[in-house]
Amino acid sequence: MAENEEESINIINENIDKAIEMTPVIFSLFGNENIDIAQFGLTNKSDFYLGAVMVSALDLIADKYMQRYAKPIPDTEKITALSIILRRLPDFKKAVTDLGI
Question: What are the sequence ranges of the domains in the chain?
Fold first, then answer.
């Protein structure tokens, strides 16, 4: 984990908030009606968008870590980020639901 665990968790949560705010942008990027979600093993589009937003959050966290510390995010930090993302699953679901999906 980063030098200060509380600071690291705060940074992770800030980046998750940014990813959740970007849900409409992510929707517009993947809003192609011709997407065959079955090829991803999904049964509904909301799951597809939920996954896209969650992956975007992790990617944003990794990018910010690289910018801040000039090295790739370590696995321990990824695990922390993933556990926080999963705890915030209701926030991600609300963002997708708010799009009317």
Answer: 5-97
